[in-house]
Amino acid sequence: MFDILPSRSGQILVCGHRGHVIDGHENSRPSLQRAAELGASLCEIDLRQTRDGRLLVFHDDILDNASTGTGLICQRDHADIARFRTRARNGLPIEGQPIELFEDMLAFSRELGLGLIVEIKDKFEGSAYLEQVISALGNAGMLDRVLISSFDYVVLRDIKHLEPRIRTMGINYHHLTDPAAAAGSASMDVMNTDYPQFSADLAKGLHAANIGVSHYVPPPQYFELRASYGVNYLQTLAGFLRAGLIDMLVCDDVAWTMDFVRANGLAVAKVDAIQ
């Protein structure tokens, strides 16, 4: 089981958001493989369920924006969707990849030595969906190598109730009055906060409650124009890293993030290296 508080030992987890996607297809085998080659600790993937109950690795509820298919995933069977291929959102002419089944991506990630963040995207009723996720993790031997994530904190509470060994990560886009209390209400192990809501006080409060601190950061190009106006968030981020306030950086560009982390004196934690 990997350490979710590596900042205490001068390390940090680097997570490829949907894999290394800056020049590839999100949620695909090549994006995960490239992230692993670059040295990522984990990759984040997204779950959707088909009409016939299969779990797919795909971000949107519709096929139209990131594949050669059309329509709602929940209204199509897996055999139908399997005919389609991924399509790059940024328009790069990259060869399309299969839309993968969850169990296949779990096995592939284990072969690569990658941990996973598995984001549950669908809305559902009852416990059958979560039980299916838990069963897939157990069958793949990945229970101790995965964080289950969601914007829906009830989902995180419920999956931990069903399987206490699972560790969870809440996704936060807001400036919360008491982040540690919000995390505690769902029994989450890690909280991710996106730019620009992240702050030192938020991180310190979570760490005081023994909750891991994750931070999603857009690609560096996002900050270039702002830096020319005198607002250099990457300099601020470097200060956060050196102060040990962040346990995991989630990013689209794994290569840049690895260089940034190392330039600030941190070692990248590996899932396989931590017992």
Automatic annotation (TrEMBL):
Domain GP-PDE, chain residue ranges per copy: 12-261
InterPro entries per the UniProt record, alphabetical: GP_PDE_dom, PLC-like_Pdiesterase_TIM-brl
Alphabetical list of Gene3D superfamilies matching this protein: Phosphatidylinositol (PI) phosphodiesterase
PROSITE patterns linked to this entry: GP_PDE
Matches recorded under Pfam families: GDPD
PANTHER family: GLYCEROPHOSPHODIESTER PHOSPHODIESTERASE, CYTOPLASMIC (PTHR46211:SF1), GLYCEROPHOSPHORYL DIESTER PHOSPHODIESTERASE (PTHR46211)
Name used for this protein in its record: GP-PDE domain-containing protein
Organism this protein belongs to: Devosia yakushimensis
